[in-house]
């Protein structure tokens, strides 16, 4: 039988060394072994803190917007992650690069989903545990209304 070879882009926020990164790297390697074309897009990747497959040529990685900080005075981590992923996705779309992929695997940060879907791109989203459920400050009455709103949105 004839297999359908797909071109798959992975959108991952910070392609370092962690459990979420190991999962998407293993998924991409598995898809590549099946003959599919895979490519990672991220806003952070450094050769001294990553999995071998992302630096030895096994999996191509494109890094955009790494100049935007992860936080400002230890605040705004989630907001900046969402901003960088939105910018990364918009760049893919506006430059036409998104059209070279059959589907997008998005994990951790969901902001790319409505952007990609608005332009007719197929998406798969994976989130192994919603980050906001880990934040006890959402229920803490001592936290400001703005803090609870911010974490409630993300």
UniProtKB/TrEMBL annotation:
Keywords: Transferase. GO terms for molecular function: GDP-Man:Man(1)GlcNAc(2)-PP-Dol alpha-1,3-mannosyltransferase activity. SUPFAM superfamilies: UDP-Glycosyltransferase/glycogen phosphorylase. The keyword Transferase applies. Gene3D superfamilies: Glycogen Phosphorylase B (3.40.50.2000). Transmembrane segments: none annotated. The keyword Magnesium does not apply. GO terms for cellular component: endomembrane system. It comes from the Eukaryota. InterPro entries: ALG2 (IPR027054). This is Alpha-1,3/1,6-mannosyltransferase ALG2. The lineage of its organism: Eukaryota, Discoba, Euglenozoa, Euglenida, Spirocuta.
